[in-house]
Amino acid sequence: MSESGLGSTEPPRSGAGMYGAGAEIVMRAEDVHKSFGRLHVLKGVSLEMTKGETVCIIGPSGSGKTTFIRCINHLEKIDSGRIEVNGHLIGYREHNGKLVEDSERSIARQRTEIGMVFQRFNLFPHKTALENVIEAPVHVLRTPKEQAVGLGKALLERVGLADKLDTYPGKLSGGQQQRVAIARALAMGPALMLFDEATSALDPETIGEVLAVMEELARAGTTMIVVTHEMGFARQAANRVVMMDDGQIIEEGPPEHFFEAPEHERTKQFLSKIL
Amino acid sequence: MHGLVAVDLHVIWQQVFHPDSILFRTLWATVYISVAAQTAGVLLGLLAALARMSRFAPLRWMSGVYVWIFRGTPVLVQIFYVYFAFSWPTLRFGFWTITDAAIAGTIALSINEGAYMREIIRAGIDSVDKGQMEAAKSVGMTYGLAMRRIILPQAARVIVPPLGNEFNNMMKTTSLLFTIGVFELFAFSQQNYSRYFIADYFLAIAVWYLMLTTIWAFIQAYIERRLAVSERGDELSFRERLQAAWNPVTSWARGGGG
Hints:
The structure holds 2 protein chains of 2 kinds.
Chain A: E1 25-36, E2 39-50, E3 54-58, H1 65-72, E4 80-85, E5 88-89, E6 92-95, E7 98-101, H2 104-111, E8 114-117, H3 129-139, H4 145-158, H5 174-186, E9 192-196, H6 204-219, E10 224-227, H7 231-237, E11 240-245, E12 248-253, H8 255-260, H9 265-274
Chain B: H1 9-17, H2 21-52, H3 57-72, H4 75-85, E1 91-93, E2 96-98, H5 100-126, H6 130-138, H7 143-173, H8 185-196, H9 200-232, H10 238-253
Antiparallel strand pairs in B: 1-2
Helix pairs in contact in B: 1-9, 2-3, 2-5, 2-7, 2-8, 3-5, 4-5, 5-7, 6-7, 7-9, 8-9, 9-10
């Protein structure tokens, strides 16, 4: 898939220190293809992420951004290529040199290393904020309840919701719900966080509080992939910005490169519309 | 006096307010058969609903054939077939005897009920937002754990009201088991009628059936209130929950019904 242009072959211009010898690769996607029926959504996407990096994926709707990060935790099954997180092949295992779909149990185990924040929050409505956060630590990781409660309270405090522990999602604003969702994902101690347009369904006045939490996470060295239309966030918090169009990565680089001197014609066009 | 009065109040008074031990025995049979058949029916319905949603096609077909047959034939036919086609044991636990007919009848009612419950449970599961399963999976839950902890508790809100109606129906449908010789509430009245030719025995047990279904209506309302708590996103104190449970009682007394 050499038509992916700048793609992953060219080294980025800044933040290069992260690519030095010994930088730990957290996520590696190689030539990922995905079709829905006859619609070819991902046409050979390759991306590598080192520990502590924040990558923003931008691009027009329908470019495959969301599909790509849903493939990373196997909510979508890829047709070819491979994705590794923390050195584990996602969704498949190698058997006599072929890739075979993995068992449900081991896919579930791999997902514990990947946190996901959805556009529409998807909090568990029958559980309080704290219960949402400790649900998976207690029932998936088998963390003792008291320990999980301690962790849950600390995480909710970190996202600024220490006073909403016992509140049900139905009583929280969109921004508050999304911050609970972030805490819920963090509670599993994931190696990688995925944000799927986490602010797109929010009221304008609550977008800021969610972005602030995400920026704090990025500063604290969380490895995260952020699919977003928030260019301000991309400029401030991202180490690297990736532009996707028509199922491919057409350009990537540090935010300065993107917002000051984009190279690809399609990127210029897209940014001129959105900025 | 008998020939003059259409309703023999004495019989009704006697059977309702001074029931003898035989009536109690039959009342108990009606209750335990209803509860057992409904419980088993819910479990069968759940299995059939999960089979219906399985990725494995033969399971989906089996679920379809099950519902097709048991909703498509009379329950009385099913009861007779199950009772006469197989030989069932009679169980004794001290004073309590469960006859072969009661076992066969309970099993027939369970299987029949499961076919109806499958659709109710499936509708409940379908009513839960698809994002819930994705969110549960994204935090590392398996399908089974996500079903148990996340999907079914939410589906319960949608399942419980029709489930309550099914149970109401079940308590009344158990009267059919009289036909295979189960000694339950209706059999009691039938036996007394054929002995004394007083039709008011039927009226008396109608009062008993009515009491059973009315008590159930209260219990159902209570369960529905409790399930609604998380839907509203409220945090209710114990006192408020008691009040919420009491409300359907008072509204029923005002003529609102169950």
